[in-house]
Amino acid sequence: MECHEENSADLGLKLFIKIFEIAPTAKKLFLRDSPIPAEQNPKLKPHAMSVFVGVSSTAEKTGKVTVKETTLKRLGASHSKYGVVDEHFEVTKYALLETIKEAVPEMWSPK
């Protein structure tokens, strides 16, 4: 799946919308009590794109998602500060796989 900036923002946003559908409480972690719909939130789209680009670029290069230990520790510390717990990562994994499956069905396999 070649990741281009123009579709990464949309795919990243789809990923987060899917996360919010599966786990509505996660929406509050990201958007607090913002009255702005998630699709129009000015902070969510850049964050979503950053996440999607990071994940897809490592997957394109290695065939799997890899994260350096120092990056993982930094991400863990910042996400923990906002109340993200282990269960959220399972939801994120499922939502990511579903987003990829919808985006590039011809490249999708359960493996």
Write the layout of secondary structure elements.
Layout: H1 5-22, H2 24-31, H3 44-62, H4 69-81, H5 86-103
Helix pairs in contact: 1-2, 1-3, 1-5
Describe this structure in words.
This is Globin domain-containing protein. It holds the Pfam family Globin. GO terms for molecular function: heme binding; metal ion binding; oxidoreductase activity; oxygen binding. Belongs to the plant globin family. This protein is mainly alpha-helical and 111 residues long. Helices cover 68% and strands 0% of the residues. It has five helices and no strands. It starts with a helix and ends in an 8-residue tail after the last helix.
Task: Quickly list its features.
111 residues, mainly alpha, 5 helices, 68% helix, globular
Report how far apart the termini are. Answer: 15 Å
CATH class: Mainly Alpha
User: Ranges with pLDDT <50 over ≥5 residues?
Assistant: none
Tell me the number of strands: 0
Strand content: under 5%
- Domain module count: 1
What is the CA-atom radius of gyration, in angstroms? 14 Å
Helix-and-strand structural type: mainly alpha
- CATH superfamily caption: Globins
The pLDDT mean sits at 80
**Global outline:** globular
CATH fold descriptor: Globin-like
Summarize the structure.
68% of the residues lie in helices and 0% in strands.
